[in-house]
Amino acid sequence: MTPPTPHRPIEMVAVTVNGQERKFPRGKNLLAALLDDGVPVPHYCWHPALSVDGNCRLCLVEVEGQPRPAIACNMTCAEGLRIRTEGPLVEDCRRGMMEFLLVNHPLDCPICDRGGECMLQRYSMEYGDGHARTVEERRRFPKPQFDPLIDIERNRCIMCTRCVRFMDEVAGQPRLAVLGRGNRNYIGTFDDGPLADIFSGNIIDICPVGCLTSKPWRFKSRPWELKPVLTTCPLCSAGCPTTAWVRAGVLHRLTPPVRRHLGGYTIDEDTTEFLCNEGRFGAYYINSPDRLRTAFAREDGQGRPAALDRALDLAAEALAEAAAVGPEAVACLAGARLTNETYYLLARLFRGVLGSPHVDWRHAFVAPAAARWAGEAFRAADGDLALLEEGAYEATFVIGGELKSLVPIVALRLKEAARLGRTRLAVLGPRLDGWLSRVAATTAVVAPEALAATLNELGRAPGSDGAGPVAEHLASAAGGLIVLDLEIAGGALNAALVPAALRLLRRLGPSWRFLPIAQGRNVRGAFAAGAQSDRMPGGPADSAAGRQRLSALWGATQELPAAGVTGPDLLRRAARGEIRTLLLHRADELVHHPQRELVERALAATPRVVAIDLFPSWITERAGVVLPGADFFETEGTMASIDGTLQAMSCGFPAPGDAQEDWRLVAELIDRLGGGPRYESAGQVFAELLAFWNPPQRFTIEDLRLPGPGPEAPQRPLSGLRRATRPDFKLQSEERPDLGPVPPVEPPRGDPLRLCWISSIEGRDHLTSRAEGFVELRARPTIELNVEDVERLALQPGDAVRLAAEAPEATLTINPSLPAGVAFGAANLLGLRLEDDVRGLPPISLQRIEAQA
User: What pTM, to 2 d.p., does this model score?
Assistant: First the structure.
């Protein structure tokens, strides 16, 4: 496969800085170039992800040939430029600017949550006079109730406008503005309401002073009292690297990863590693008091707390008894939030010890065909988001377009690449979201059932006149990236949509890459580690060589499994009473599954259910054995982001009570069943798994860790790392599945209203619904229709409606881009209930809720 390459050549120019010649890219922002090259230049208003505002005037530099200093943030690198960033003139200018910035600033560092991490505090010591000459009374603003998650102290604001520009340019929601005039201007919203945006928490990090701080963390602790744990967000497949700030096993805040900054590992106010609010504030679920801290077992019909060893013995006994009946009698549904090491050990437990291939992560999909084709999509996945940000993809084609609700930071990275001109974006979907589509060069809306047919037309003739502007967009690019949403309508369209997308990929040629998107946190790891019925660690299960390799390592002959058995298949088999023991390992997706009745029948018909979980639920109540697991900052191991980037996790504190790291629980079951070596560490498991992945160069979990805080607190020195850079290896596959003939797509019959749904990250979730103070801020349920359908159904925008009598109330809104006959909403907000067999978009009838007098 031909690798994409950046299509913009970089020309270097000579710039003399403080008498020393340096090489910078021509046209690059001078301040950015200086900072990247390690030249310290103080600044407040400039940020690498934002437009230049030039209002703080602190980055003044002396320019040879100019009569007065100039601000570096508003200059670009040019050949022969000669500047000085130090010296009497520059230092005097900076002292003067610092005095202006401190004229109204309150001296409240001892009570400010930003104390110890504040740029104003630091720069006032490094570049200021250390005292104020003003005697006038400082301005004072009343404290507003600005936002439920973000606290604002306007008295501390220096009007750098970073927050305003971030909300406008990056978040794409211009909710903030500079209000008032002169010395009484301030930052606020036009309606005095909250920001109400999924990216708004990032203004806390980029605020250079203590104006914007986190309400959940307010007055809870000081930064130096917390232990920073470098890990990864556990919620969606964007896989954002994060720092968990913990003390005594309690999570106090989640931030972008600390980096080496100004001589130490701290939060960098110039970070471009953004987090969504679900990850930043939703992760407080781990502090919930209903955390499972002890094992439970049901013996003699009574469920009661049990010793962990006893519960493990009962779980192993249940698995062994079912396996003795036959390989079809035992199965595992593995959630999408487990580590690669856990997935690998589950594959070893079921394939190598129990002789059953039935371990699968794809139970969130609503039909067996949906799950099978999601697996086929990952066989061809080789897209790389890092290359997108480098400008390596001339064009990007997003199929589906609902990525902001599915994987917010992936959507943000796509939007920013398009906004900054690094790629030309086209979006094809059943609606336009008004956010990602806003920056697209080309958009097209078709009925959901027509998506596959449209892609097949593009695949046959991407440059023909009849194919329209999307085809021209693709044909005009030398290479690019196809991004496919696998979770439109729970994957109900995948059987036609995935083959159509792969046919288009083949037609476009080897310079195009493919990135399928699913929401589950570690779906790429589950696929690559063999936690899928038709996969083995590192390859397909129908590979004779791969089965021989596993047989040699695991000591058990690996048979060819029955084709096409997926998570939805296993649920249906369990509902028919064909499975005797079912292991549910952190199967979070089942708690709010739209096919609730199917899941209930599956559990009721299975004699023995073993659950590993973090929290109780209606599912753990039906289990005979419950084992308590560990969460993201309590676990050593690795995960993968949606583009296959491997990420290390660090254990900051042991899990509470008898809870254990998930891989350890599976290793204990393997040990009790006599199926392999005694695993003592996650690194030992990773080394075994890595042998199947066969990277060009071997590495360890330690090599994957970001430099920064570690067990050698307060920080892990760079010299302690085995490598200066992370290993250049991703979990990418270049397999090409057999697509077969083009399946016919039946048009909808009659004139029903059909629901096209998504599973929104802002909807109900087994974990984040426990985040104190955050669940109340969940997005309100809405159902979108186009104008024609609203009129046909005699409804009005703003009407309260619901899908069924027991469903939550939703607000009706109009989206002009929706095709006729299609309603749109989030299943985990609307309380959607589906039948067992989902072959397309289900017909719905909206119930209007009359306002009570």
Answer: 0.94
